[in-house]
Specification:
By secondary structure, this protein is mostly helical. It is 77% helix and 0% strand.
Length: 210
């Protein structure tokens, strides 16, 4: 029984993980409040969680803010690009009724574009947190991985839906929701990243942050 409460025991280990999850969720919410910075916050979030999945732990808040600062401009540009594409797709869906002859065809294309936009978004910020790539390379890689590893993609989507449901059922879950998603999805995404970059867990810091 005593072993449970040792410094390296399960009580402190899982208690630390829970504390990190709550801290990360709060940091993400606060840094995403301007909305335009949501992509930068998401990149910083995954920088911390993927490091921990790689057993390269550090100070949660310091690492989050470090990544937020380093990836600020690239993350901002990607967020704007995704937002613009989203507005275009939504507008096209909204006004498809103005072309009744082509409505079904246009809606089919729009729904495909919306789906691709969503799944690319799932991958692009975790990728940016771990790899130094140009914006075009990030979009191409995110598109490839999202469609190549569809099982993981759908699992991440289902996880998001489950977390939204949990937050609706119990609003207090909101304070851990983002961190939980990031931790769970990081395990899945890192398995994929390792297939293409086997030494990702031991790369130098300067090579990992974009």
């Amino acid at each position: 029984m005593r072993g449970i409460f040792k410094i390296d025991g399960p009580f402190f280990k899982y208690g630390t993980i829970l504390a990190d999850i709550i801290i990360l969720t709060i940091l993400w919410i606060l840094c995403s409040l301007p909305l335009i910075t949501v992509g930068i916050s998401t990149t910083a979030l995954f920088y911390v969680t993927t490091k921990q999945v790689s057993n390269r732990e550090g100070y949660v808040t310091a690492n989050f803010l470090k990544s937020f600062k380093i990836n600020f401009f690239q993350g901002l540009l990607i967020t704007i690009i995704l937002a613009v594409i989203g507005v275009i797709v939504f507008t096209s869906i909204r006004f498809s009724v103005l072309v009744p002859q082509l409505k079904e065809f246009i809606l089919t294309l729009d729904y495909i574009a919306a789906f691709e936009l969503i799944i690319v978004t799932l991958y692009i910020f975790p990728l940016m947190s771990r790899f130094d790539m140009k914006i075009t390379e990030l979009f191409k890689t995110a598109f490839f991985l999202a469609n190549r590893h569809m099982f993981t993609t759908f699992t991440c989507l289902m996880l998001i839906i489950a977390i939204i449901f949990m937050c609706t059922f119990n609003p207090m879950f909101l304070f851990a929701s983002i961190g939980i998603y990031a931790y769970i999805s990081s395990f899945m995404l890192m398995r994929i990243f390792r297939k293409y970059c086997p030494d990702i867990d031991v790369d130098d810091e300067s090579e990992i942050i974009g």
